[in-house]
Amino acid sequence: MLKDKKILLGITGGIAAYKSALLCRLLIKEGAQVRVIMTETAKGFISPLTLSTLSKHPVYSELYDSDTGNWHNHVELGLWADLLLIAPATAHTLAKCAQGLCDNLLTATFLSAKCPVFFAPAMDRDMYLHPATQRNLQQLAADGHHIIPTEYGELASGLVGEGRMAEPENIVRHLHDFFAQKQKLKGKKAIVTAGPTYEAIDPVRFIGNHSTGKMGYAIAEALAQYGAEVVLVSGPTALMPPKHPNIELFKVTSAREMLEVCMDAFHEADIAVLAAAVADYRPKEVAVQKIKKQSDSMQIELVKNPDIAATLGQHKKPYQFMVGFALETENEKANALQKLKKKNFDFIVLNSLNDEGAGFGHDTNSITILTAEGESYQSGLKSKKEIAYDIVEHICRQMQKQALLPVDA
């Protein structure tokens, strides 16, 4: 899985830096191309000569090398890499990356990198368990980065507990699993709907909802990371367009526009994830000019919007896999199961507005996945990035059960 992968190894100043020599050697042995960036403090724990000998390339540590006059372009380093691995990642470096601070070549490269980033934290137990460190780890995970869990064991201080950097073999195993995931849905095409729809009342006003599109965008990125080609159909959001080359973004405003794009793409799709919060109704008549305030009340006649999920469900072929969403406030499971059956979903993702930290506007979510076979999975409160990967993993498993995906994928 690591053959010919370009891995940028960032080493920071902690005692666990001595393990980076073995880590570099294991990556090279797996066939990866490795370049090393060291912070100045890391040089006090392991020699750059050791890392340059193992990687067979010069070690980078400064933006500008005064001895040679060379400028080390952090943008080029970030573009070169298929993956940036910071191991060990000290509490100081985690804090800087979480806050976007940039005062050395490694943090500059991190902020420029377009590739996936993995952190392998390493520090003493109390530092690791401190709320500030835990908050920084949560922020990095919410930003879509990957945290390799620390291991329990003896620490340099003599304490025993959490905070020990994962062993090099285990770090390599995490990278193996990541690149294996990227192959699971290779060759598959997916549609994802995201965000709200806006139904015009006049040129100024509309009917809409509070959906931000964060969950749908995260699912599109997770599907793309697993190798799928993704059509992302997005209602109006303030989100930046996804950067992944496997994602094609279509921006729409109304439910009817969203349906039109979905119908065009659906006949080629293997997977459809309908995460958008589509308006159920729209005004029957849309005023050409702004409606002026003329009385104490106003009535607007509404007509039903097309049901995108139900329409696609009616056209669903045996080789296609559909996932729906249900946002509920009461009789949650019963309503979700009814929707699952009615709209021909393979499974449905239940959101409850009664769960703290879930629903519209949050960076976190808590879901329950209900399948057509009666299975149930509860995620607990996680970042929407993590929830997206949970959903995509369930898609892969269910598709394997239905023989829509090879079991060894």
TrEMBL record:
InterPro entries: CoaB-like_sf, CoaBC, DNA/pantothenate-metab_flavo_C, Flavin_trans-like, Flavoprotein. Its EC number is 4.1.1.36, 6.3.2.5. The keyword Metal-binding applies. GO terms for cellular component: phosphopantothenoylcysteine decarboxylase complex. Keywords: Decarboxylase, Flavoprotein, FMN, Ligase, Lyase, Magnesium, Metal-binding, Multifunctional enzyme. CTP binds at residues 280, 290, 325, 339, 343. Binds 1 FMN per subunit. It comes from the Bacteria. Residues 190-409 are annotated as: Phosphopantothenate--cysteine ligase. Gene3D superfamilies: CoaB-like, Flavin prenyltransferase-like. In the N-terminal section; belongs to the HFCD (homo-oligomeric flavin containing Cys decarboxylase) superfamily. In the C-terminal section; belongs to the PPC synthetase family. This is Coenzyme A biosynthesis bifunctional protein CoaBC.
